[in-house]
Amino acid sequence: MREVINTRQVVDWSAAIWAGIIGGAVFFLASVLLLPLAVGGNAWVVARYFASILLGAEVLAPPATFELSIFAAALVAHFGLAIVFALLISFVIHKGGLLAGVIRGALLGGAIYIINVYTLTLLFPWLFALHGVLFFAAHVLYGAVVGWVYEGLEVEEFVAAGAEGGG
Question: Which end of the chain is more exposed for a tag (fewer CB within 10 A), N or C?
Fold first, then answer.
């Protein structure tokens, strides 16, 4: 008689972090470059909104020009959130394949938009100015990229059910 061992797939956290970095870069570029083209303004306005999470609303005062300290804060805040959200997305999608990862990632990106716009704005009310279809599309794109990169980089690992593991 053969013994059947129940297994479960664990999350590849390294792939999740890389997915967050790459998805975050795509989101950052889409937001900083495409939003100003579509609605006017310049790229530094959007970067300053990201930096305001760490530095406060004072960084939003005109002129919206490049300042290294503000840009660094924008990158830290943005990529910190991008990696945290990618870890969550990866935890949810890790049992699917590439197509399922992209679709679920896109849906979760849309959910993250709702969370960001309707809850994060309770702490940072000035972020509501980013509310709109283009910012929603950037979140959906971010989620799809995270799902795609995660599933592409994931090294599938299975452990015995009930054993310690990463997800």
Answer: N
Strand partners, 91: none
Task: Tell me the two tokens of residue 32.
Answer: 């900083």
Segments making up each domain of the chain, as ranges = 18-160
Owner of token pair 């470059």: 33
* Pairwise CA distance, residues 1 & 18, whole Å: 43
151 token code pair: 């599933």
Q: Can you tell me the distance from the alpha carbon of 29 to that of 46, in angstroms, rounded to the nearest whole number?
A: 10
Tracing tokens 């015995």 back to the chain, one arrives at 160
Number of other residues whose CB lies within 10 A of the CB of residue 131:
13
Q: Please name which of 25, 121, 13 lies closest in space to residue 33, comparing C-alpha atoms.
A: 25
CA angle 78, 69, 85 (to 5 degrees): 10
Parts of the chain with a pLDDT under 70: 1, 4, 7, 162-167
Task: Residue 81: count other Cβ atoms within 10 Å of its Cβ.
Answer: 18
- Kindly report the pTM of this predicted structure: 0.88
Q: Give residue 120's pLDDT.
A: 86
Q: Which residues contact 134 (CB under 8 A, 6 or more apart)?
A: 34, 35, 38, 39
C-alpha 69/C-alpha 75 separation (Å) is: 10
Instruction: Return the pLDDT at 167.
Output: 58
